[in-house]
């Protein structure tokens, strides 16, 4: 009789003969599993296309787990059988031909379920299949994790997105000081805050702004029907990004808002054509837009943060323990080169390793740029290990403690706002903000494309606000947004 709902730690120690029968009965079910995999893959692939900037999160995995567990309970698998099954699956999956095969099934399913237009299905799967299969074999499909999940902790250890704690120094927290407004006439420093520029190299005036692809107003969008107007010269209120001329106009029009002491630029430089982006495309966006910003802001120092669209596949930011060609070094090296004139050597050093850095723009102020892709639910590399990726939060604690010791104030910039992060990351970040509330003078993020803020409260009563993160609106009109005038910028006044 089929058994349902095996919970962790519940009867799964079985003897030899049953393993035999499991194996023989297993073959049609094995095929089932092979079929199920691409479906999961397709769901995971779909998540990034739909997720940004709308707050749709990819929780497909969470919903699938009980169903998978049911299926395995039904199969009545023993621990050694489970482990050899997954060892075999991983071995098979790592072959190039299986990646292609998984990819072809994922593509078929994507087309069948009309997840995206056929050409988009095809190229999305091609773009993601290598990295996703690599990550899956090292995480959810590894014998220990998979069997830990399906058969309980006596068989393996499921620790995908498990919770973790950073450690705070023993130094007692200073008594909270309510913020004091600056004295009248105190010197003010003007900071330009730019985010989510999303330059579309292939933007084309007159094309269909309402095409069926995830990004329109571009060469491959076709022409609109005679009854509707085509994409505008400067941009379009639709699922469209911006031509370079609009960014140029934005930057050239900054004059009256300045002069600026510095610029916070919180990422997302390339367009949303995430189904068809090469490393070369991403680097062209990085260098072209960096050159444009330099041209119009001249000697004003610009402090960038790494957005989720900088990489390809989108959201794919392997932590530093991934080495070789899968690593992010192609991107971070190019950033270090492009931003060399803005950042000191120590900042360039950590940027090369993990895409984050700290520097002192002037005496008394420390600026910390975080790589928020290490907090992201959509960064599929974190399935392998999501525990404080790159040690970034522990490093942040060190920076904040040093700033507290010196009596400095700190600004944090980053792309994805902390409220959109994986639970454990968010929780730890909240603790850090609460511990260093006197030192932390400002937080600035982007990614949501709209003008909003996130408030942090004290951890004891959750009633005393102690910090706020400002989220700036995007430069791009994606999706159907009206950039503020002058577009996409907030001018932040703060006392020197
Ligand atoms: C599953 O295992 C249990 C105990 O090991 C056994 O009694 C039962 O018959 C098995 N069920 C199936 C469907 O093989
Ligand atoms: C983290 O700390 C909290 C309380 O400070 C505790 O409840 C939780 O169990 C800890 N988590 C881990 C994984 O140590
Ligand atoms: C590294 O990976 C990229 C992207 O997957 C690929 O285009 C390139 O050919 C690879 N390079 C090497 C040396 O394998
Ligand atoms: C995950 O990363 C953390 C921090 O780098 C490390 O302490 C831990 O051992 C890693 N876990 C696994 C299973 O590799
Ligand atoms: Zn964006
Ligand atoms: Zn983003």
TrEMBL record:
Zn(2+) 2 binds at residues 268, 308, 415, 447. Keywords: Disulfide bond, Glycoprotein, Glycosidase, Hydrolase, Lipid droplet, Lipid metabolism, Lysosome, Membrane, Metal-binding, Phosphoprotein, Secreted, Signal, Transmembrane, Transmembrane helix, Zinc. One of its GO terms (cellular component) is membrane. Residues 1-25 are annotated as: Disordered. Residues 75-159 form the Saposin B-type domain. The chain crosses the membrane at residues 32-49. CDD domains: MPP_ASMase (cd00842). This is Sphingomyelin phosphodiesterase. SUPFAM superfamilies: Metallo-dependent phosphatases (SSF56300), Saposin (SSF47862). Binds 2 Zn(2+) ions per subunit. It is found in: Lipid droplet; Lysosome; Secreted, Extracellular space. Its main location: other. One of its GO terms (biological process) is ceramide biosynthetic process. Belongs to the acid sphingomyelinase family. The keyword Lipid metabolism applies. In the lysosomes, converts sphingomyelin to ceramide. Plays an important role in the export of cholesterol from the intraendolysosomal membranes. Also has phospholipase C activities toward 1,2-diacylglycerolphosphocholine and 1,2-diacylglycerolphosphoglycerol. Modulates stress-induced apoptosis through the production of ceramide. Converts sphingomyelin to ceramide. Exists as two enzymatic forms that arise from alternative trafficking of a single protein precursor, one that is targeted to the endolysosomal compartment, whereas the other is released extracellularly. However, in response to various forms of stress, lysosomal exocytosis may represent a major source of the secretory form. It comes from Panthera pardus. It holds the Pfam family Metallophos. Residues 15-25 have a biased composition (Basic and acidic residues). The keyword Cell inner membrane does not apply. SMART domains: SapB. Signal peptide: none annotated. The gene is SMPD1. Its cofactor is Zn(2+). Disulfide bonds join 79-155, 82-147, 110-121, 211-216, 217-240, 375-421. Zn(2+) 1 binds at residues 196, 198, 268, 449.
């Amino acid at each position: 009789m089929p058994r349902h709902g095996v919970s962790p730690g519940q009867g799964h120690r079985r003897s030899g003969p049953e393993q035999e029968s499991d194996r023989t009965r297993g073959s049609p079910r094995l095929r089932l599993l092979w079929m199920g995999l691409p479906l999961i893959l397709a769901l995971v692939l779909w998540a990034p296309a739909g997720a940004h900037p709308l707050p749709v999160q990819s929780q497909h995995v969470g919903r699938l787990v009980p169903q998978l567990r049911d299926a395995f309970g039904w199969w009545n698998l023993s621990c050694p059988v489970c482990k050899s099954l997954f060892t075999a699956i991983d071995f098979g999956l790592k072959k190039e031909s299986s990646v292609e095969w998984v990819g072809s099934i994922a593509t078929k399913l994507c087309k069948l379920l009309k997840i995206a237009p056929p050409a988009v299905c095809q190229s999305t799967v091609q773009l993601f299949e290598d990295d996703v299969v690599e990550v899956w074999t090292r995480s959810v499909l590894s014998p220990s994790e998979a069997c830990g999940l399906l058969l309980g902790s006596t068989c393996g250890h499921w620790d995908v997105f498990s919770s973790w704690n950073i450690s705070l120094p023993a130094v007692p927290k200073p008594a909270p000081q309510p913020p004091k407004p600056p004295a009248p006439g105190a010197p003010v420093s003007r900071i330009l805050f730019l985010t989510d520029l999303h330059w579309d190299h292939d933007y084309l005036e007159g094309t269909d702004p309402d095409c069926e692809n995830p990004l329109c107003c571009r060469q491959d969008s076709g022409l609109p029907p005679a009854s509707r107007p085509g994409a505008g010269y400067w941009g379009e209120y639709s699922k469209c990004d911006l031509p370079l001329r609009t960014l140029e106009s934005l930057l050239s029009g900054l004059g009256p808002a300045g002069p600026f002491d510095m610029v916070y630029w919180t990422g997302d430089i390339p367009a949303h054509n995430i189904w068809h982006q090469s490393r070369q495309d991403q680097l062209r966006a990085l260098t072209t837009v960096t050159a444009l910003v330099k041209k119009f802001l001249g000697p004003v120092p610009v402090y960038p943060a790494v957005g989720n669209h900088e990489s390809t596949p989108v959201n794919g930011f392997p932590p530093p323990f991934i080495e070789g060609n899968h690593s992010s070094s192609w991107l971070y090296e190019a950033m270090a080169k492009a931003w060399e004139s803005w950042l000191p050597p120590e900042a360039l050093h950590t940027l090369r390793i993990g895409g984050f850095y700290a520097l002192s723009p002037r005496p008394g102020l420390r600026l910390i740029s975080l790589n928020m892709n290490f907090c992201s639910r959509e960064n599929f590399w974190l399935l392998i290990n999501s525990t404080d990726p790159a040690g970034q939060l522990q490093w942040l604690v060190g920076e904040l403690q040093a700033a507290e010791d010196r009596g400095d104030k700190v600004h944090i910039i980053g792309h994805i706002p902390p409220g959109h992060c994986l639970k454990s990351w968010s929780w730890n970040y909240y603790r850090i903000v609460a511990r260093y509330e006197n030192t932390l003078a400002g937080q600035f993020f982007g990614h949501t494309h709209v003008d909003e803020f996130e408030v942090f409260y004290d951890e004891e009563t959750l009633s005393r606000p102690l910090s706020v993160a400002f989220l700036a609106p995007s430069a791009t009109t994606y999706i159907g947004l009206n950039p503020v005038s002058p577009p996409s910028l907030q001018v932040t006044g703060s006392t020197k």
